[in-house]
Design brief:
Blueprint (H helix, E strand, L loop, with lengths): L35 H14 L16 E9 L13 E6 L7 H15 L1
């Protein structure tokens, strides 16, 4: 919105409807969490050594993981292509709502940290 509350730009986000995914896709899904003891340990080491701590939040983290196998999505309702109403989209990278997105991003993150 601009100063006059007029719409300047439309934004959209593709999200899958995870309730329609196969049950087998949920086997390896997880949410990596930091244990509170680990966080306290890091903070105490930083304070003891006089280090500065910074936090980063990557809002589009899941969108960086590449999919190992093809995933197809139907066109979102209201945004169908009138020339090809039955056309589907092939995803190349993970999206929000995909059961494997968190696991794939976690693997990518671990790989990048090990390379560093």
């Amino acid at each position: 919105l601009d100063a006059s509350n007029n719409i300047v730009q439309w934004k959209a986000r593709v999200v899958t409807r995870s309730f329609q995914q196969n049950e087998s896709e949920y086997v390896d899904s997880f949410a990596p969490m930091a244990h509170p003891v680990t966080i306290r340990t890091i903070v105490s080491v930083a304070v003891t050594n006089g280090w500065y701590l910074r936090q980063a939040d990557v809002k589009t983290a899941y969108l960086n993981a590449e999919l190992p196998e093809p995933v197809y999505l139907a066109q979102p309702k209201g945004l169908e292509n009138p020339k090809n109403p039955h056309q589907v989209m092939q995803l190349r990278k993970a999206v929000y709502g995909l059961a494997a997105s968190c696991r794939l991003w976690g693997k990518l993150f671990c790989k990048r940290i090990k390379e560093f």
